[in-house]
């Protein structure tokens, strides 16, 4: 708790908005995407999905394959509480929908389906095809039922560990967006990053969730930032965004969203 509070204060001290950003690519991303007030049809579908799960009376027996939960003590977890405390927030879901639209994402990969709200923020508009991997059978099954209920046919769910799921991907397939939203272990995060590099192209965006979760996650984030193939990184505190655009000058940004 104290670690994350200290990390947030440090983030606030170093963060900026669009002012003082001299990279045209990052400036446009911030002003036209991060801070856009334009309405999106995808917002309505996500709000509908969140309303449904918040009203759910289901309790799932969750198998936690990651770094554990700072919210739940046991494995029996109400869907409504998962949605309230663990799933992607409304603000972040809207940012994700804007990123998918602004970057013209057609093919996406998600590690960590949970109950499916993050997946819907990526593929709810119907523009992107999404492959999403979840190790826990209960949450994976719940998410799949939610996708079917909302008629989201472009989402393909895989119930397996991240490591196993990645071996099943077509080694020649590339993704426009890769969202790593699970495990929250520094060493594992670096392993997934390295294994996923073969699935990127010049304009691919990697998003890492909870980069300030722990000292190990912060260390992993610092190593990702200096990787030779990484050109631009943006720390928004909750998420770390990574771009590989070879035409960009190598720069790191800390941006308030």
Automatic annotation (TrEMBL):
Q: Which Pfam families match?
A: Methyltransf_24
Q: Name one GO biological process term.
A: methylation
User: Which key words are in the record?
Assistant: Methyltransferase, Transferase
Keyword Methyltransferase in record: yes
Named from the GO MF annotations, one term is:
methyltransferase activity
SUPFAM superfamilies named in the record: S-adenosyl-L-methionine-dependent methyltransferases
The protein in question is named Class I SAM-dependent methyltransferase
Q: Which organism is it from?
A: Psychroflexus aurantiacus
């Amino acid at each position: 708790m104290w670690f994350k509070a200290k990390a947030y204060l440090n983030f606030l001290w170093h963060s900026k908005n669009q002012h003082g950003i001299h990279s045209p690519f990052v400036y446009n991303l911030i002003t036209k995407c991060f801070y856009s007030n334009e309405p999106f049809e995808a917002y309505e579908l996500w709000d509908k999905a969140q309303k449904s799960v918040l009203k759910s009376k289901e309790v799932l027996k969750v198998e936690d394959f990651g770094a554990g939960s700072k919210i739940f003590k046991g494995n029996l977890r109400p869907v409504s509480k998962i949605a309230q405390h663990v799933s992607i927030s409304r603000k972040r879901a809207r940012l994700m929908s804007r990123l998918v639209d602004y970057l013209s994402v057609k093919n996406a990969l998600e590690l960590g389906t949970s109950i499916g709200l993050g997946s819907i923020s990526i593929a709810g508009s119907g523009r992107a095809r999404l492959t999403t991997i979840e190790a826990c059978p209960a949450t994976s099954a719940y998410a799949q039922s939610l996708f079917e209920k909302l008629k989201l046919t472009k989402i393909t769910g895989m119930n397996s560990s991240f490591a196993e799921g990645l071996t099943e991907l077509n080694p020649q397939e590339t993704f426009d967006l890769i969202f790593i939203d699970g495990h929250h272990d520094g060493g594992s995060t670096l392993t997934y990053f390295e294994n996923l590099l073969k699935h990127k192209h010049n304009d691919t965006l990697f998003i890492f969730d909870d980069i300030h979760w722990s000292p190990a996650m912060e260390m992993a984030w610092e190593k990702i930032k200096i990787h030779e193939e990484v050109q631009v990184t943006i720390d928004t505190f909750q998420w770390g965004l990574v771009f590989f655009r070879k035409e960009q000058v190598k720069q790191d940004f800390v941006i308030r969203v």
